[in-house]
Design goal:
- The structure is a single chain.
- With 404 residues, this protein is an alpha/beta fold.
- It has 19 helices and 11 strands.
- It has a 7-stranded mixed beta sheet, with helices on both faces. A 4-stranded antiparallel beta sheet has the order 2-3-1-4, with helices on one face.
- It is globular, with a radius of gyration of 23 Å.
Length: 404
């Protein structure tokens, strides 16, 4: 592989923004890819994937290169040098990469790889929390799986197209996909490509959504004609899936505390041909109170630590703090206690997170069921999804029914 100076410099700029200025990796990549309109898909792929790779292995590479935050430009080039050596890429004859100690890098890598927190490149506190919550064996498997690059998975918009037809439409646009057993609406990209420029995307024939995430809407068992509430809708990935499961019939109310996210949802709904969705901003308790005892189905896709989706957000390893995990557990219980009041007798709700920690998942459900507000509910079933078992994101979902 021959390295091009302008692409490598773009990676260094991106790392500076992510590590030193605290910006989110996905937003930084978007920004950096706008630097030069002449870059082709391979150039853009190199910038995005190399940046994500160095972000993913930041702690390991920093230990090998013996550099620490805040990183100078020289330090960032040292991290890049480590990446090159471990990828078997010939170091170019540039002054920024002069004297890269190749043998020493390999030696340090072998030595540090004996210790999990270095090998998997995670903060001490996260490693300790993982072991305490899941046990040595499961945590070791899970954090290894979370360090693999995430596949690109599409969800067929069945309101507009059947899955086999979408597969052939994409093939005509030179995008090869394959079916995944057990995921009725999913197509997996054979190789990473920008699917957002395709005509199929512009026509609303699919959304990009991880395979595990695609299991949440069916878990709620919605039916056409029901009143369904998605109470933490965000930009609406699962809302749109619910709409297709409802065949666009009935009422689907999407709630969120952020109006900006609901605006994105409206735009996506138009592209998807979804017209049974109504958005409401939760700007006071009145919004929830008005909906008390009215929902046939309620989805609580609760905010969480995101420890199940590290593979697609590797920078979250460095942004997440232990205090946040404690704080978010309070928010989760609050959502269960207050939002569950929207379910009518005989109705059902799903509590879901993209976390793998039992304290955010089954323990929250247990605590809710033992409370005054939870006494009318019963647990129908729950499911833990681990990246180490499926290759997709880590998730949790619990189906609860309100007694008639």
């Amino acid at each position: 592989m021959r390295l091009h100076r302008n692409l490598v410099f773009a990676v260094i700029d991106a790392l500076h923004m992510i590590f030193n200025e605290g910006e989110y990796a996905d937003k930084v990549i978007e920004k950096v890819l706008r630097y030069d309109k002449r870059w082709g898909s391979r150039d853009r792929g190199f910038i995005a994937e190399t940046t994500y790779d160095i972000v993913r292995w930041k702690r390991l590479y920093s230990e090998i290169a013996e550099v620490h935050e805040p990183y100078s430009r020289e330090h960032l080039f040292r991290l890049f040098g480590v990446w090159c050596v471990l990828r078997g890429i010939r170091i170019p004859d540039w002054k920024q990469l002069e004297g890269t100690p190749e043998r020493r890098i390999k030696g340090r890598f072998d030595e540090l790889s004996k210790t999990r927190k270095f090998r998997e490149s995670i903060p001490d506190w996260m490693d300790e929390l993982g072991v305490k919550s899941l046990g040595e064996e499961l945590w070791t498997k899970e954090i290894t799986a979370q360090n693999q690059q995430a596949d690109v998975i599409l969800r067929t918009n069945t309101l507009k197209v059947p899955k086999p037809q979408l597969k052939s439409f994409l093939a005509k646009e030179d995008i090869a996909t394959e079916f995944i057993d057990g995921y009725p609406d999913a197509l997996k990209l054979v190789e990473r490509q920008n699917v957002f420029v395709t005509q199929a995307f512009k026509d609303g024939l699919f959304e990009v959504q991880d395979a595990s995430s695609q299991l949440v809407a069916p878990f709620l068992e919605v039916e056409p004609g029901q009143r369904v509430i998605d109470a933490c809708a965000g930009a609406g990935g699962k809302t749109l899936h619910l709409a297709s499961q409802m065949q666009n019939k009935g009422q689907l109310i999407a709630l969120d505390i952020y109006e900006s996210k609901l605006k994105k949802l409206k735009k996506r709904a138009r592209r998807n041909g979804v017209h049974n969705v109504e958005t409401r901003v939760i700007d006071s308790n009145k919004v929830i109170k008005k909906l008390h005892n009215s929902a046939d189905r309620l989805l609580l896709d609760a905010p969480c630590s995101g420890l199940g989706v590290i593979k697609r957000n590797p920078d979250s390893k460095w942004k997440l703090e232990p205090e946040f995990v404690d704080r978010i557990m309070g928010v989760q219980q609050d959502i269960l206690q207050n939002y569950s009041k929207m379910v009518k007798k005989g109705g059902q709700m799903v509590y879901a997170t993209c976390s793998i920690l039992p304290q955010e998942n089954s323990e929250q459900v247990k605590k809710f069921l033992e409370s005054e507000n939870g006494k009318d509910f019963e647990l129908v079933r729950e499911r833990n999804i681990y990246a180490s078992e499926t290759g997709f994101d880590g998730f949790y979902m619990a189906l609860l029914k309100k007694k008639a």
